[in-house]
Amino acid sequence: MRTSKVLISFGLIGLALGFSPAAGLDGTPTPDGAVVTVPLSNADRSNLGRAAPIAVVPVAPMAVQPRPTPFEALRSGTQALREGKPDEAVSSLEYAAGQGVPGAMWKLGRMYADGDGVDKNKLRAFEYFQNLTKAHAYDPPGTPQARFVANAFVSLGQIYLEGIPETSVKPDPSRARQMFSYAASYFGDPDAQYYLARLFLDGAGGAKDARQAVKWLGLAANKGQYQAQAALGAVLFEGKEVARQSAMGLFWLTVAKDSAGPSERWIADTYSRAFAKASDDERALAYRYLENWLRSRRQ
Predict the structure, then answer these.
(1) Which of 17, 242, 251, 265 is the most exposed place for a label (fewest CB within 10 A)?
(2) What is the mean pLDDT of the chain?
(3) Buried (b) or exposed (e) across 172-199, using 16+ Cβ within 10 A?
């Protein structure tokens, strides 16, 4: 009994050291032809007979969760942001943005520009807006993603007006005018038209041109951009650099006043000053313009 255990131990050690199992424990020949026989006691034989066979248990493969599509990631990120889960939102939106989804690129830019769910970071916002405009500048106007691209141009223009302190993005009104001009002309974006008109009125980033300003303000005003309506109304009512149209100016100021929120105090103040200066005839004509405007909007 003791001898058999010693021999078995030596056999196991040989296997562990990498030796070929040439000396079989059941009497198989070794390389030199010798046969090694291990005597077993009756107890050993009895135990071997009762040994349970090794069962093979199948292992089910781990289920692999499919990755969401880029547009599913955009929806998931937007939903997570509404639910107050900014980390989850950023993760999903970054995945969608990395796949080139315009809505995700724009949303991340706005989040970093406004500090919405993330720390405010104008440089990161600038990078997202810039990547979006580079990749989708020639997308057809009127497509679902066109409004995101147009707003990215507007956002870049606003950043260029002020620059970003301690970065390579310096104030550049000329570059801002280019951004606004492209979005205003190619995409017909009313916000871009308004900001471009302001630059023409102020002569920032290029020549001062009141006629061009009125043209762009008129386009934006007719699309319901209330800041453009107020600016156009002020220019026409005063008539300092263009032909004076006081009643038309008062009409646009009235429309803008009704659309502006309480934070746009300058619009209400401009309207009040114009109304106080206007004659009864000018007020009456402005009212008729307003009636026609409202009627056309209802049709």
Answers:
(1) 17
(2) 85
(3) bbebbbbbbbbbbebbbbbbbbbbbbbb
